[in-house]
């Protein structure tokens, strides 16, 4: 085990006090900020997430705010997903690409109004790309990182806990829609969303001062629901096929390779800077694609790509993996060439503990 | 102590095998990559750095490569430092700013030729800004991250070690100049530079395959010089006044606030996107500035800004601090308002262990 060296550059979130009191044992760094990765154990956190309710400090999902007359135009420049039909109150998952069609991020767009948007980002300084494009095109738009700290409530008892704090109307929210709710006189934007398949919400908390009061109120309200501090769970997110930018995909990959073709309206997303580059792949399809990979037996941490082999030749790589209590053996996410990506294809994965059997799956586990 | 959770997203460098074998005990994350922070102890590493020679895996200093007819024009857009007089073979420390004059990075520019440059970056995805500007302005230039892994040789015995591996002419290099040298038939760009005040070199190693052979050759050649694996040392870099982007300065700060006004030729750096915004501060000077801060007694890790107080009012903050074996008490870097930045001003710094006496210093320790 190696220690993480704390410094101001690895920013503490506005919920850090709560996270530390809850006994976070491990961290990763995400958008230059600390993200807890485990509280009790990854397995214990996993079972609890699937049965109760957790509060996650996901303030690392920094927002890029676009505000001004050209905000909508700039948004469309960033993604091959057609945003014309998107209404205020909606969240859209938007693959974000550069001029070559390479993935720069896979954020969630939050449309506050016609001229005000948030982009809730994965781990890259997307702000710099958006600012560069806005400046280069002389767009009439302000681009900045606001003081917004997302807090996720995840797990089967999320609706119950949220209703206690925000009133029962919060349960009326549909998936990837958001509404405005009151907490101690402050307006909170709450969406039904989150980085798990167990259901839940994300609260976009504006203002550092109200973060810990909200954290404490949720903890207090959920005592009899066995609420715990939690965090994105490696096992559960792999079982659910939730991709991780930087792990499962990088700037090297197109959205289509990442299985995100369904979010690309390449024909109609006029203005997207990567559109020209993606037209061909959108038509012909990618030659490799992300797949669920079942692996024999337990695995250690996947801290570098593991080669996927067939008859001594590399045909892909695994980029996320974890031993699964609920499904036996290990669950993984990998990128596989089209010659070997069919459901049920048997491969070998080269792990640090030696080669193991692997099977390509069409669908993820949950 | 909290553990760091390893994943592919926290990229291993091409020297990781050597770093791990040498027993790195702690890491930070820098440009989405692992950077070791301590081997034996920070104090032991410090004494050794000041007396012998160390090999540092600084592959986290990723390069942004600019190549093409518009490369020089794009370079000048990034910085208020006038680059017109810069020759191939030179390295320039270039504060890099956005359109508001806020610091985006403080990299070293490496001019390979008129139409080919590297930018050796600090911790932010500067690539995305450079690509955005290049795209927005339709510049005729390729911008990418090449397969280059810098390796630093630092300490008073650096010249001796480097001469053994690259021949004695490497000692002729002047500060912030680079030359081409051979290693096993491969061309290596070597500069006299590095993130310490103990003297030394940085080797820009092109190609993943040659990284460990070079690491091993240097280790072998330096055995009788007591060569050790090392890393940027927190204590020594504060004593030397070497700033850390993300710690001591952020996008909130102008170069002038960071004491980098001497690297800004705001009048003549025509084309710099932040020039207009910096003209006023360049003329009138900043209202706060980075200073060396001596602190009474030992300190723990500075993982968030510590307030600098005078008569109950905040007049600045400390952003880096460490107990200093050679200078007694603790050494720090902070940002102080002009009302209190004079040499010898006595302040109080609010540390997690309570308030401590602090003195503003005009100059750093080494």
Automatic annotation (TrEMBL), chains A, B:
Coiled coil: none annotated. It comes from the Bacteria. GO terms for molecular function: methyltransferase activity. Residues 19-267 form the GCVT N-terminal domain. Residues 306-356 form the Aminomethyltransferase C-terminal domain. The gene is dmdA_1. NCBIfam families: PRK12486.1 (NF009133). GO terms for biological process: methylation. It comes from Thalassobacter stenotrophicus. Its EC number is 2.1.1.-. Substrate binds at residue 202. Keywords: Methyltransferase, Transferase. This is Dimethylsulfonioproprionate demethylase DmdA. It holds the Pfam family GCV_T.
């Amino acid at each position: 085990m190696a220690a993480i060296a704390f410094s101001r550059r690895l920013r503490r979130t506005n919920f850090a006090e709560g996270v530390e009191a809850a006994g976070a044992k491990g961290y990763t760094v995400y958008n230059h900020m600390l993200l807890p990765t485990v509280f009790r154990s990854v397995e214990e956190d996993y079972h609890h997430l699937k049965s109760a309710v957790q509060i996650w400090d996901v303030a690392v999902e920094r927002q890029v705010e676009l505000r001004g007359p050209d905000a909508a135009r700039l948004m469309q420049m960033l993604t091959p997903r057609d945003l014309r039909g998107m209404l205020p109150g909606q969240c859209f998952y938007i693959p974000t690409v550069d001029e070559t069609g390479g993935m720069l991020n896979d954020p969630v767009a939050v449309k506050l109004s016609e001229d005000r948007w948030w982009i809730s980002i994965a781990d890259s300084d997307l702000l710099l790309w958006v600012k560069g494009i806005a400046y280069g095109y002389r767009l009439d738009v302000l681009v900045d990182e606001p003081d917004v700290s997302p807090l996720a409530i995840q797990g089967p008892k999320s609706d119950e806990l949220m209703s206690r704090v925000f009133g029962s109307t919060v349960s009326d929210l549909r998936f990837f829609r958001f509404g405005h709710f009151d907490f101690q006189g402050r307006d909170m934007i709450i969406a039904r969303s989150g980085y798990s398949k167990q259901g839940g919400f994300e609260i976009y908390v504006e203002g550092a001062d109200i973060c810990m009061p909200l954290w404490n109120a949720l903890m207090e309200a959920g005592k009899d629901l066995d609420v715990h501090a939690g965090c994105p769970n490696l096992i559960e997110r792999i079982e659910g096929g939730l991709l991780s930018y930087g792990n499962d995909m990088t700037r090297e990959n197109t959205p289509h390779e990442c299985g995100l073709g369904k979010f690309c309206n390449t024909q109609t997303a006029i203005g997207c800077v990567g559109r020209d580059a993606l037209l061909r792949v959108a038509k012909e399809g990618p030659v490799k694609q992300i797949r669920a990979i079942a692996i024999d037996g337990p695995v250690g941490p996947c801290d570098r790509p593991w080669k996927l082999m067939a008859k001594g030749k590399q045909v892909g790589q695994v980029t996320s993996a974890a031993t699964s209590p609920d499904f036996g053996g290990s669950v993984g996410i990998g990128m596989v060439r089209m010659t070997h990506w069919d459901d049920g294809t048997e491969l070998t994965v080269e792990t640090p503990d030696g080669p193991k059997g692997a099977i390509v799956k069409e669908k993820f586990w949950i």
